TrEMBL record:
Organism superkingdom: Eukaryota
Gene symbol of the encoding locus: CDH24
UniProt-recorded name of the protein: Cadherin-24
UniProtKB keywords: Calcium, Cell adhesion, Cell membrane, Cleavage on pair of basic residues, Glycoprotein, Membrane, Metal-binding, Repeat, Signal, Transmembrane, Transmembrane helix
Taxonomy of the source species: Eukaryota, Metazoa, Chordata, Craniata, Vertebrata
SMART domains from the UniProt entry: CA (SM00112)
GO annotation (BP), single: homophilic cell adhesion via plasma membrane adhesion molecules
Length: 781
């Protein structure tokens, strides 16, 4: 039979049946009262429910939470109870002898809600399991020890102003760490602690809503709402937590614009040009952003003609500007109305309109010094060409708007009339020609006339004056180009040879209508037919032109139909040529004129032969002269017996004197001792200049002055020429003939040299010298 053993759990004076222990199976008969073999049946000895322990228990430790007992335990002390699993030995301990289970410390369900353990009964002596191990659970029973918290708080929300009651603002959510399945520890209720009467909260869902209508952002833009969450269903003793919700009212266009004043007054000088800012207007609108954008307009036509108004870049201010030029003398002030209107209007708030406002504006025009004003914006005048200087062209007129009696002076800007073709009267502005004009050279003259106030030269204005030169018949017609044409010998009578075109530089009209006429002789070789369109046709007459070598010169007479008519003549050259069958020119007789008149072919050949002969002689002469020069140069290069230095330039120069020592060429016996100090050179430009001789005192004698200047120039080393002076007065000590210089000779030039021995005996190198100085004088008669 099964036996049950109760395990009692004592907690705070109470008890709880937390498990049952089944006795081990025993042998029993297969049928009641019938003997037979005993049937043995074995089953598990442990059948467990779960144990419970209260969290956060603060009683004396350790605390007994349960007891384990097995039927195999006869109370003899041979059974030992073991406990393994989560927290065994640290959190939970068991009495090996009795099986009592104790908890050693306070537990927190929020940290760990349950523990899984293994219980086993073994023999104390041999540790042999008396029962198979069995698993059981110890659950930590929850108490209300955690207040609600708002993990997403604090909150920020926005709701449009003027919202209806019950408009959802935001939903807040609190969390309670206690066990929601046990009691009311995690059952939350939401309430508003601060923010009434503007907002309310749903107790179950935590949705915050508006509680009153027509909340105005312009009155209060931001609200701070405090929401509380309380567990235990909101009853007494429950824990609570709170959070804040910052609610901002967003703007809607619920306020129309309003001008702070009904009248605006501005002033502007009359010289202000179009686009000049006159002033700013701002209609006040407490709304924000696009809801405060405005558009401005001028209602009265009087103001809209002279002024315009626009909105600035921020869309708030109205900019009043000048639309057209103002004139103080014409009008002193302008009065009109300006309207400001919201650009974005919400139909839901039309009942709060109209969303516009009107203000009056008065603009005073201030007087300012103004330059003279011409009676016309531009002048177009005309004058015939070829008129004598001083011809009246026209008149310009300007007046001082500030004072009609102020005198004006007129002038033409020089750069607009560089040829000085016109002049203007400074007092009255009449324009005259200064030179005769030619329409064919220039049709239009564009002048700029300057008008200046006499009392204030700074006040000046300009005007453009265009003067057209009118045409007169002063140019005779002429051919469009010089015509040089040909006609074939085989041309048929009446054939068109050339179309002649004429032009007239005069203007289109009768002056440019041109007529052309050829020779009136009926026996003429060619005829001219006027086409009456400024051209004529050159035709071959009914009889062909007689052939000749020279071309025909056809006279053409041209005249126009102007008043008076002008005439001119021109000549057309016509050559008679031999033509191929296709009409192209083969040759023209005028080509024979290329040879000189009166010279035959033989004469031309003789002239060409003479010219060739002369050219050959010139080439031969140049070649012989070049060959002779090359032969002399070869001889000079081969003659190396003497150290001959050849100078091709006029002056020695610095290079020649430094190439060798000049003193080696001087006679060492007759050389003067060198002067102390650095040796002076006369072959280069000296640095120091010789002092100039002063003029002698007293009356100057011309000869004496010239001699003084000549001596100063001779003694001045700085004046040219400062070439190298090289005197070869010494031949050398080793020569048997002595010096050849004539400087040491006592004989006069042209006398006999008187050498110690005849020059003919000196060898072939001195043959030329012997001929010059060794020639005997002819005997006296």
């Amino acid at each position: 039979m099964w036996g049950l053993v109760r395990v009692l759990l004592t907690w705070l004076g109470g008890w709880s049946c937390v498990g049952r222990l089944a006795a081990p199976a025993r042998a029993w008969a297969g049928s009641r009262g019938a003997p037979g073999p005993a049937l043995l049946r074995t089953r598990r000895s442990w059948v467990w429910n779960q144990f419970f322990v209260i969290e956060e228990y603060a009683g004396p430790e350790p605390v007994l939470i349960g007891k384990l007992h097995s039927d195999v335990d006869r109370g003899e002390g041979r059974t030992k109870y073991l406990l393994t699993g989560e927290g065994a030995g640290t959190v939970f301990v068991i009495d090996e002898a009795t099986g009592n289970i104790h908890v050693t410390k306070s537990l927190d369900r929020e940290e760990k809600a349950q523990y899984v353990l293994l219980a086993q009964a073994v023999d104390r002596a041999s540790n042999r399991p008396l029962e198979p191990p069995s698993e059981f659970i110890i659950k930590v029973q929850d108490i209300n020890d955690n207040p609600p918290i708002f993990p997403l708080g604090p909150y920020h929300a926005t709701v449009p102003e003027m919202s209806n009651v019950g408009t959802s603002v935001i939903q807040v959510t609190a969390h309670d760490a206690d066990d929601p399945s046990y009691g009311n520890s995690a059952k939350l209720v939401y309430t508003v602690l601060d923010g009434l009467p503007f907002f309310s909260v749903d107790p179950q869902t935590g949705v915050v809503r508006t509680a009153i209508p027509n909340m105005d952002r312009e009155t209060q833009e931001e609200f701070l709402v405090v929401i509380q969450a309380k567990d235990m269903g909101g009853h007494m003793g429950g824990l609570s937590g709170s959070t804040t919700v910052t609610v901002t009212l967003s703007d809607v266009n619920d306020n129309p614009p309003k001008f702070p004043q009904s009248l605006y007054q501005f002033s502007v000088v009359e010289t202000a040009g179009p686009g000049t800012l006159v002033g700013r207007l701002r209609a006040q609108d407490p709304d924000l952003g696009d809801n405060a954008l405005m558009a401005y307009s001028i209602l009265d036509g009087e103001g809209s003609e002279a002024f315009s108004i626009s909105t600035d870049a921020q869309g708030r201010d109205g900019l009043l500007t000048v639309r057209k030029p103002l004139d103080f003398e014409t009008r002193h002030s302008y009065s009109f109305r300006v309207e400001a209107t919201n650009t974005l209007i919400d139909p839901a708030y039309l009942r709060r309109g109209p969303f516009k406002d009107v203000a009056s504006v008065r603009v005073a025009v201030q007087d300012a010094p103004e330059p003279p004003a011409f009676t016309q914006a531009a002048y177009i005048l005309a004058v015939p060409e070829n008129k004598s200087p001083g011809t009246l062209v026209g008149q310009v007129s300007a007046a001082d708007l500030d004072s009609q009696a102020s005198p004006i002076r007129y002038s033409i800007l020089p750069d607009t009339d560089p040829e000085h073709c016109f002049s203007i009267e400074p007092e009255d502005g009449t324009i005259h020609t200064a030179v005769p004009l030619d329409r064919e050279a220039r049709v239009w003259h564009n002048l700029t006339v300057l008008a200046t106030e006499v009392d204030s030269s700074a006040q000046a204005s300009q005007v453009q004056v265009a003067i057209q030169t009118l045409d007169e018949n002063d140019n005779a017609p002429q051919l469009a180009e010089p015509y040089d044409t040909f006609v074939c010998e085989s041309a048929a009578p009446g054939q068109l040879i050339q179309v002649l075109r004429a032009l007239d530089r005069d203007e289109v009209g009768n002056n440019s209508r041109i007529s052309l006429q050829g020779p009136l002789d009926p026996d003429a070789n060619f005829t001219v037919r006027d086409n009456r369109d400024g051209s004529a046709s050159l035709l071959l007459p009914s009889r062909p032109a007689p052939p000749r070598q020279a071309p025909y010169l056809v006279p053409i007479e041209l005249w126009d139909w102007g008043q008076p008519a002008l005439r001119s003549t021109a000549t057309v050259t016509v050559s008679v040529c031999r033509c191929r069958p296709d009409g192209s020119v083969a040759s023209c007789r005028p080509e024979a004129q290329l040879s000189p008149a009166g010279l035959s072919t033989g004469a031309l050949l003789a002239i060409i032969t003479c010219a060739g002969t002369l050219l050959a002689l010139v080439v031969l002469f140049v070649a012989l002269r070049r060959q002779k020069q090359e032969a002399l140069m070869v001889l000079e290069e081969e003659d190396v017996r003497e150290n001959i230095i050849t100078y091709d330039d006029e002056g020695g120069g610095e290079e020649d004197t430094e190439a060798f020592d000049i003193s080696a060429l001087q006679n060492p016996d007759g050389a003067a001792p060198p002067a102390p100090g650095p040796t002076a050179r006369r072959d280069v430009l000296p640095w120091a200049r010789a002092p100039r001789q002063p003029w002698p005192p007293g009356p100057a004698d011309v000869a004496q002055l010239l001699a003084l200047r000549l001596r100063g120039a001779d003694d001045d080393p700085s004046v040219p020429p400062y070439d190298s002076v090289q005197v070869y007065g010494y031949e050398g000590r080793g020569s048997s003939c002595g010096s050849l210089s004539s400087l040491g000779s006592g004989s006069e030039i042209g006398g006999a040299p008187g050498p110690a021995e005849p020059l003919d005996d000196w060898g072939p190198l001195f043959r030329t010298l012997a001929e010059l100085y060794g020639a005997k004088e002819p005997p006296a008669p």
